[in-house]
Amino acid sequence: MDPALADDLARLPELLQSARDMAARAVAGSAERPVAALAPAPSRAPLPERGEGGTGALARFAERWAPGMSASAGPRYLGFVTGGVTPASLTGDWLTSAYDQNLSGDTGSWGAALERETVEWLARLFGLGEAHGGAFVTGATMSNTVGLAIAREWLGERLGVDVSRAGSAALGPVEVLSGSPHSSIGKALSVLGIGRDRLRRVPLLPGGREAVDVAALEAALAGLDGRPAIVVANAGTVNTVDFDDLRAIAALRERYGFWLHVDAAFGAFAALSPAHAPLVAGLDAADSVCVDLHKWLNVPYDAAVQFTRRRDLQVAVFHNDSPYLGPPTETPDFVHLTPENSRRMRALPVWFALTAYGRDGHREIVERNVTEARRLGSGIGELPALRLLAPVRLNVVCFTLAEKPTQERVAALARAVAASGEAFLTPTVYGGVPALRAAFSNWRTTEDDTRRVLAALATASAAL
């Protein structure tokens, strides 16, 4: 055995303690250190010929790379829709690596059974019924891709084509209808061979809404003359967290043949709050659902879940035909349900989070985030240099400069806020206007954090 490797094995408890201490310092300091790292990264170093051991690697990381890690797990990182990492989910993530289970199937481990239990818990959390089965994937993009792959197989079923064998070309042109699709939908259509150009945008409701006009959707479906289609509904749009009327869309299936996929990457968490649960009424009617867990569930990155009513079609798409794996059973192994053969135990951090904090704990996070988003929105409304572009419907605040909101000036505002070390925001365009988004999803964010973000915005916007 290599001497460095042998020494690490002999000193493993001390090495893990050192890593624990560094992690604890990082978590404890995430609320106060600069939210974004703006300095240039160090130049690339050559590959070591002789290893320094785990302790040496830890010291080298602390010196060269740790100073450039953002405080994305902290309470004022409002870019994208990024949750932090709750203490329990961090514990589960560390144990995921320690146990290093292969989650492709049930052989020799209870890990797959734990994932099935966790998926069932999540289904109940979001108001889905017994008909929906699911599996863990890497993120919302892969969750949407899996859902649309099953939808593609459903189209083949309706048209008498075995798409998993004949390929997407056998379907002919596919119609995919949506009002405000996330960019990952186009990416998924490209990966699946359906094509980005097959995504047809349906008119939205008037008044600056991002929700689809159901009457316009019905007209588009009627124009297909009975040809089956895919409808991608949105439960929580990127810019303004708008929600399609899921019940009304699902009711259209009584007259038109389509697969209903709901992208509820973070909007599904509205189901946890009685005040906001009506926004996702009808989610249970979806044929497939996307939910991202490293957003509002605050588990580490690389965790999402997909649900579908048609497990049989999912197996038809993803089954792994190999003698050493065996054929799919009535309860198929996960190797037959997702694109991955090699799967880590992503469910364990989620299981820890749900066990530790339950429905009530996560409801409190959702409701507190919504409260703080509205507080920020109200504060922005009082700043003369800024203006809101849309109502704060849930946890995202979309705003811009009151005067001359050019892309350059809005980007300068974002840079100034990041340079202050107080917050990090990401850009967007809403209604043709360059803007910024502040997305609240971190479990640690409080009123004090919101006031600090407002102060940074006031200073930066006044200086432009």
Automatic annotation (TrEMBL):
Cofactor(s) this protein requires: pyridoxal 5'-phosphate
Gene3D superfamilies reported for this sequence: 3.90.1150.170, Aspartate Aminotransferase, domain 1, Type I PLP-dependent aspartate aminotransferase-like (Major domain)
Positions bearing N6-(pyridoxal phosphate)lysine: 295
Alphabetical UniProt keywords: Aminotransferase, Decarboxylase, Lyase, Pyridoxal phosphate, Transferase
Entry-linked Pfam families: Pyridoxal_deC (PF00282)
GO MF annotations, alphabetized: aromatic-L-amino-acid decarboxylase activity; pyridoxal phosphate binding; transaminase activity
GO process terms (BP): amino acid metabolic process; carboxylic acid metabolic process
PANTHER family reported for this sequence: GROUP II PYRIDOXAL-5-PHOSPHATE DECARBOXYLASE, MIP05841P
Family, as annotated: Belongs to the group II decarboxylase family.
Listed name of the protein: Aspartate aminotransferase family protein
Organism for this UniProt entry: Streptomyces fuscichromogenes
Phylogenetic classification of the source organism: Bacteria, Bacillati, Actinomycetota, Actinomycetes, Kitasatosporales
